[in-house]
Each structure stands twice: as C-alpha cells, then as structure tokens.
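REVIEWER CHECKLIST
Item 1: Sequence provided? yes
Item 2: Single chain? yes
Item 3: Sequence as submitted:
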Amino acid sequence: MSAPVSADRLRPTVVDRGSSGFFAEAAQGRLSVLTCTSCGKRIHLPRPRCVYCGATDPVWQPVARTGTVYAHTVVEHQVHPLFPVPYTVIVVDVDGEEDGVRMIGNLPGRAEVTAGTPVTCDFEDLGADSEGNAVVIPVWRIATEGGAA
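Item 4: Structure as written out by the authors:
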C-alpha cells in the first residue's frame, strides 16, 4: 500500500452497512466480493441476501487483483473540484470471475486503454476518517509485462 495522502481528497464513507466489508478488506490489502456461503455464487453488486438462492449469510472473499478493461471513457468536464480533469473511468472484468463481477476505477489523464487492456489493482491509504476508521481504496493501474503496474 502507498503512504497516506493529503486531506484534499474526496473520501468514501467506509462504515456504510452495504460496503463496509469491502473497505475493511481493502484496508487489509484484499480486493473482495460478497460470496454466498450456501451456493457459492458471487453477489455483486453487494446485497444483504443471495440473489440466486436467497441465503442471508454472504461473506466477503478475495478475488484476483488483476483484470482487463471491459469499457472506458474519458471525463473532460470537471464535476468536483477534487477530481481534476481529464481522467479515464474504466470498467474492469476481474480475472477468474464469471460475468457480472466488474469493478469501476479511474486512471489519471487520457489513458491509452482499449477493451482488453490488462490492469492490476493496488491500494491507496487515505488515512483515517473522523471516527478513526481506515480509509483505503483500490486503485487500478495499467499492467506491465512483469505483471506489476
């Protein structure tokens, strides 16, 4: 994980009931997806019960920290002062997962990506929130031949 950054960053809420497990896993350096303990299917986007069998006991389980770009777009119009433009929004197919397990991320500038570009996930430590909870977010990077970004 990288070092904490300055406070001039927009931070996600990491204590939300639906996504707190995702951020707790990220704080441990794991990219994780809810998985049903009854049928084993991935539940993505997160929900309190399995959409396949109705079980109510899903758990967060790690997935690969690699994938390929499924789609992308370049944002040219600034929508928030803490998100300087341009930046490239990417939709990532996570390696080894069935269709439907896709993550959203962004790359700085007008990234040279196309559908199928390999990417890898690292984590950025944004420090603690006002209640002392770790705020760590996944950060996607274009993969190099050696597998690291």
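Item 5: Key structural point noted by reviewer: The radius of gyration is 16 Å.
Item 6: Recommendation: ____
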